[in-house]
Amino acid sequence: MNRKDVLDLDDFSPEEIQLVFETADAMKEVLSRPIKKVPALRGKTVVILFYETSTRTRVSFELAAKNLSADVVNITAATSAVAKGESLVDTIRTLQALGADMIVIRHEQSGAPYLVAQHLSGSVLNAGDGWHAHPTQALLDMYTMREKLGRVADLSVVIVGDILHSRVARSNVWGLSKMGARVTLCGPPTLMPMLEKRGSISDLPEVRVEYDIDRALDGADVVMGLRIQKERQDGGLLPSLREYVQLYQLTQERIARAKPGALVMHPGPMNEGIEIAPDVARCSQSVIEDQVSNGVAIRMALLYLLAGYKGHQL
Questions:
Q1: Does residue 29 have a pLDDT over 70?
Q2: Which residues have a Cβ under 8 Å from the Cβ of 300 and sit 6 or more positions away?
Q3: What is the arrangement of strands in the sheet containing 182-186, beginning at the earlier edge strand?
Q4: Active-site residue among 134, 165, 178, 227?
Q5: Active site includes 134?
Q6: Which tens digits make up the pLDDT trace of 208-232?
Q7: What integer is the mean pLDDT of 115-128?
Q8: Which one of 17, 57, 134, 249 has the largest count of C-beta atoms within 10 Å of its C-beta?
Q9: Catalytic residue among 36, 56, 257, 259
Q10: Active site residue 190
Q11: Cα(first)–Cα(last) distance of the chain, in Å?
């Protein structure tokens, strides 16, 4: 992998994505061992810098780095010099001077990881920035599809929910399109970007937009729900959560319109009873826990590849 950073999937080639998947296969083998650790990143320092709260992504990155024997430093903005007014650039310069080789950053401002990459000689991994991107989540989503269905190409993937504010949806659109999947976005018109006008929202690839969930789910191979952020209702974008449940909640009846054995996915955290019914979240078609597990392997693969390893035996 001839790149310094992982900021989004818009500049990834299908070959690079395939390399990440193949490396993640090797990492899953490592994770199946009694001792889930290899010395690949021994002597490297990975800083996990989060300006937003997180459980899955933060713990997943920390486990990934530790499984590769890296030295891991966790920093939460609220307990750092940021709380005293230090700028993001000053924080990055300080971390570089302290010996950070890689920085994993989550930030509420779209584009923040790109700024960090300009001021850090080491690698930057975007763990989510504003409404913009969440590339590692999209990679683990696609990896789970590949693991369960044997491929990503030609799959019909339906993403349902708050598309407008979802960095997960944006990165998945880029990744899935590059790997040959067909993407349908479904949700209320007020929570849908103006994708009909190409280039208006991050210049996303062409996707199908469908406001009727029954038509969207017809014949789908994969159905992915997105969290409804309750603050969006407070902003007047939804009349009520009750109306959203009636029109867009993933229920057993609606999932039945997809292909037999279609995967049910969700990037988490879930609002059970709102965007997804509890019985659907735990049904036999649900691979939500597999997504969480695969996140460690995907992030191990990215850290390993960014460190410059190419085909080295683990």
A1: yes
A2: 24, 27, 30, 31, 64, 67, 68
A3: 208-210, 182-186, 156-160, 222-225, 263-265
A4: 134
A5: yes
A6: 999 999 999 999 999 999 998 776 6
A7: 96
A8: 134
A9: 56
A10: no
A11: 17
pLDDT beyond 50 at 201: no
Look up 3 and say whether it is catalytic. Answer: no
> Of 57, 91, 136, 144, which residue is the catalytic one?
57
In one letter, which amino acid is 164? L
The active-site residue, picked from 53, 79, 84, 197, is 84
> Is-above-0.85 flag for pTM?
yes
DSSP class per residue in the chain: ---S-B--STT--HHHHHHHHHHHHHHHHHHTSSS----TTTT-EEEEEESS--SHHHHHHHHHHHHTT-EEEEEEGGGSGGGGT--HHHHHHHHHHTT-SEEEEEESSTTHHHHHHHH-SSEEEEEEETTTB-HHHHHHHHHHHHHHHS-STT-EEEEES--TT-HHHHHHHHHHHHTT-EEEEES-GGGS--TTSTTSSTTPPP-EEES-HHHHHTT-SEEEE----HHHHHTTSSS-HHHHHHHH-B-HHHHTTS-TT-EEE--S---BTTTB-HHHHTSTTB-HHHHHHHHHHHHHHHHHHHTT-SS---
200 confidence band (pLDDT: 50, 70, 90)? very low
Report all structural domains of the chain as residue ranges with CATH numbers, in order of start.
Answer: 14-133+292-306 (3.40.50.1370), 135-288 (3.40.50.1370)
Q: Catalytic site residue 144?
A: no
Per-residue pLDDT tens digits for 231-281 = 666 677 887 888 999 999 999 999 999 999 999 999 988 999 999 999 999
Amino acid at 72: V
Return phi, psi of residue 11, to 5°.
-105, 10
Distance CA 45, CA 65 (A): 9
Note if 57 is an active site residue: yes
Token pair 């850090």 in the structure block, residue: 120
